[in-house]
Amino acid sequence: MKTINFKTAVVAVGLAAASLVGSGCNSLTKTQKGAAIGAGAGGTIGAIIGKSAGNTALGAIIGGAVGGTAGAFIGRKMDRQAAEIKQTVPGATVERQGEGILVKFDSGILFDVNKTALKTAAQTNLNNLATSLTNNPQTNILIVGHTDNTGSAALNQDLSVRRAESVKAYIALHGVSGSRLTTSGKGFNEPIADNSTEAGRAQNRRVEIVIIANDQLKQEAKQAGN
């Protein structure tokens, strides 16, 4: 019974946060939406919501949110960094989500089929991303590898982990502190498209890089809001 009640509470909080954002969707900026989500869901609940939705990246962003005025402060900083990454890393899809940034690379840009060595052409994109991450040191970075469903679950899980680790090693080599970097491999467990088509499988083969505020930035944001 406790488990059921807890799940019900998670759903309720999630719906409340969504309702809060949706009520003024057209008039709110992404920074303001991020503040609303953080205030409505909270860190722990947000992480569970993201996990339950089958989206590790979203869970990390919502789970790291502080909300309120501090969240809006963080959001403004993320707005600027996201704009910088969009300008300097043309091979990536850059999305502002809540109080964080989601940078997504199709695996075809970074790796050959079933390989974990970075393509030469991919290195320019990651060099520029590493520069932005270095210039904005008050963040933590989660690198998540994903595959399509071709092959066994074990093979794909291993491939997703090794690809995430490959990206981590490269940007660490180019100036990003290893203490800021964590990795996760999800295999084919978090598809964003239909694995029954080649176009869908291509979308599912990806690496996501999540950028969220570290404790120092959160503290600065809270002080700025006082």
From TrEMBL:
Residue span, OmpA-like domain: 98-215
Keywords: Cell outer membrane, Membrane, Signal
Signal sequence region: 1-23
Subcellular location: Cell outer membrane
Domain of life: Bacteria
SUPFAM superfamilies, sorted: OmpA-like
Keyword Cytoplasm set for record: no
Gene3D superfamilies named in the record: OmpA-like domain
Alphabetical list of PANTHER family matching this protein: LIPOPROTEIN YIAD-RELATED, STATOR ELEMENT OF FLAGELLAR MOTOR COMPLEX
Record protein name field: Outer membrane protein OmpA-like peptidoglycan-associated protein
Taxonomic path: Bacteria, Pseudomonadati, Bacteroidota, Sphingobacteriia, Sphingobacteriales
